[in-house]
Amino acid sequence: MSAVRSLLRKVFTSPIRWLISVRSVPANIEAELGIDKKKPILYLIQTESITDLVALQKSTAGLGLPDPSSTISFLGEEHKRCYYLSRPQGLFTRKVKKTEIEDVFTDMFHLHRENPELDLQVVPVSISWGRSAGKESSGFAQLLADRASPSWLRKFFIVLFLGRDNIVSYSKAVSTQQMGQLHGSNQRISQKLVRVARTHFQRKRQAMSGPMLLERATLHNSLLAADSVKAAMHEEMRQKKISSEEARKKALDYIDEIAADYREGLIRIGDRILGRIWNKIYNGIHVGHAHRVRELAQNGHEIIYVPCHRSHMDYLLLTYCIYNEGLVTPHIAAGINLNFWPVGKIFRRGGAFFLRRSFAGNKLYTAVFKEYLELLFNKGYSVKYYPEGGRSRTGRLLPPKTGMLAMTLQAAVKGINRPVSIVPVYLGYEHVMEVKSYQKELKGKGKKKESPTQVFSAIRKLKNYGHGFVNFGEPLQINQFLDDTVSDWRENIPSDPDKKPSWLTPAVNKLADTIMTRINKAAALNGTALVALCLLSSKTQIMSESELTNAIADYLELLKNAPFSNDFTLPKEDAQELVQTTLALKRFEQSEDEYGKLVATKEDNAVLLTYYRNNIMHVFSLPSLIMAVVFNAKKSEKSAVLAMVEKLYPLLKREFFMHLSVEQAIEYASELIAQMKQQGLLVQNGRYLVPPAASDDGFHSSWLLSRAMQETWQRYAVVLRVLEKEKSLGRSQLEKQSCVIAERLSTLYGMSSPEFYDKNVLGSFVNALRESKLLTTLEDGTLEFSQDSLALKELINELVWPEIAQHLEKI
Question: Residues with Cβ < 8 Å from 563, sequence gap 6 or more?
């Protein structure tokens, strides 16, 4: 019988290979899963299937792993390398037969008792086709919905239609040596291993395909039956004098306006289209720390992705990356402005649900939206929303909007059947398609309304975008966060589930701040941002290519040896290759004279480069502060530098969403100083730190770094000078006068960045001053200049260019 099966396998293998295209997850199994290719490897698959085996063969060949159809020799005997938990369903029955896997493992553990040095790696491998969760109703789609052990006929159709959408997902290896050391009989240990394996495969399948999709009628009925929606409908009837049928129709209209209409087929098509687009416009998409979300999904967590918002491209890029990591794509909260023909319908079928900019005064809409969000959580759908509310026009993180976070916490408090984890996500680009329009908006031009013309125009311009970066930050488990933040939150849940508990607002504010700091903690440095940082710090915004390369090499070495965080990522290329690939994007002016190549900002392009610099400015804020103190003082004791860090870091932390505490920042600054001295960026001269000599190799890199934060110090000086001059004034007046003066300075001294006089950025600094008690707030809200404000102003003036400080004093 085995000979017949072997013959059939050979006959069917060749045509099956033509139908199958595999994607292996993770791509680097050694680094992420700790699998040692030098040790013996066995594979464990859920279902015995020729097609699954062929998919695994193609995957292992690409990863350099042993062929699963081969044999493995240990203890002088030949053994199969691939094993299965079960056989396929029968053609006319759903019954799944077990294999002899328990007996195999029992014999294996018996060998371990006799040969303790034997150690095999059993690698569980999940193989998914199409990843369709199916719907509650039957139909042709249900035939293709992935099942644990489909019959050969169902598998034929699955491979025929979905063979190009195959995921081979590897898990951490189980050591048979360690399993063999467990207490109990060999048979009991074998049974335990098989039981754990079945649970593992079930969770992996759930993570890939997601929960069963709701029919539209079921969705309507579920939301209309919610107590909060019924109460809001009654209130609508009472206030607007309408009938119950009219109120019900209004609620249904809101549901249809909000709810996604997820179609797994569209996701598959989108994956293929986007794959081609990314290959055309990007040189590569770099994904960092994806193992975090895979582990959460496998452990049964409800995942809420909260990325920063740089571009409309975010919607597509993050969803594409999640899909390619072998996970079900999330339902995405999108602004109602994106619900226009034709993209609105496409987005909705891709999982987008739409929300209005404001819920104020509309209790029925609010109730429907809250219940819809809670339904998504309870049904196990992953969700994605942007805490900033809109796209950043400056390249830096915006202060978070807390509405969605508050609704998330309220839903979690009401009770969700599984753990809920928030995953911050850092998104970075070497080119953002909207960057020119952002700069126009910062200069006062109105925001263009999204339209089909705008979409097709953007598509036509898609080219040469460099690299994209997606880093998954440190997850935050909501119940654990609440336990740490509000120890008695379980005892203080209102009996009315729609009433806000007293602790909610401060908890939401802390949650929002934590998320933003974790986004920035996972920053990705890239070539465009680093080149922009260097050129904008140069007096003339022009540098020789060799100086530029040396400066970037110095910064990469500095951050490699004194890393900003455990989560941020550096480019994999060395500085020379990084500069060359960045210049190939043709975003910079390049020329050559007899002494070599020159790199400069293009005409009127310096303003645009501030956007990319601001993406990574928080990473360089402390190194730049250290250099600015030393360069401006000519010489400075280390204790004086650290004292300046202690005084100014709270303001930087608030403005740039920095993750370190003040104590940690001082420790990190000390680490930076040690590394700077080692690289020759700083020199120890007796008890003093001094800049390198102008003839030293590290001088130019140090000098650029000392200037990188100059616009920030100048902005601080403007606000503090207005306060000093007026003595006391309202916040809006302070921001308005500061904007006027900042814009004047920008004109006089050629500042490149419109954000220099952006009201929101100035307002962020004013908030930081208030929270740090560096100015006095009177009962009527008026802000008053104080001795602390004066002391801070004197510190800031030590860092500001003398001509700027002098001009401010004359105002």
Answer: none
| Model confidence at 558: pLDDT above 50 | yes
DSSP, residue by residue, 332-369: EEEEGGG--TTHHHHHHHTTEEEE-S--TT-HHHHHHH
pLDDT at position 723 over 60: yes
pLDDT at 9: 62
Looking at the structure, do residues 607 and 664 belong to the same domain, yes or no?
yes
**Do residues 25 and 167 make contact, with C-beta atoms less than 8 angstroms apart?**
yes
Q: Coil, helix or strand for 549?
A: helix
Q: Is 500 helix (H, G, I), strand (E, B) or coil?
A: coil
The residue to which tokens 């017949």 are assigned: 4
Looking at the fold, whether 446 and 500 belong to one and the same domain comes out as yes
User: What is the residue-wise DSSP string for 637-648?
Assistant: EHHHHHHHHHHH
Q: Model's pTM, two decimal places? A: 0.89
In the predicted model, what is the mean pLDDT of the chain? 88
Q: What percent of the chain has pLDDT over 90?
A: 55
* Locus of tokens 């303003």: 607
Torsion of CA 292, 298, 300, 305, to 10 degrees: 40
Say if residue 739 is in the same domain as residue 767: yes
Return the ∠ at Cα 46 (arms to 40 and 48), rounded to 5°.
90
Q: At 108, list the tokens.
A: 């294996």
State which of 466, 500, 521 marks the end of a domain: 521
Burial class (CB in 10 A: 0-12, 13-18, 19+), 100: exposed
Read off the tokens for 300. Answer: 């049964």
* Segments forming the whole domain that contains residue 593: 527-707
Which residue in 738, 714, 709, 715 sits closest to 726, CA to CA? 738
Domains in the chain, number: 4
Residue where a domain stops, chosen among 188, 209, 230? 209
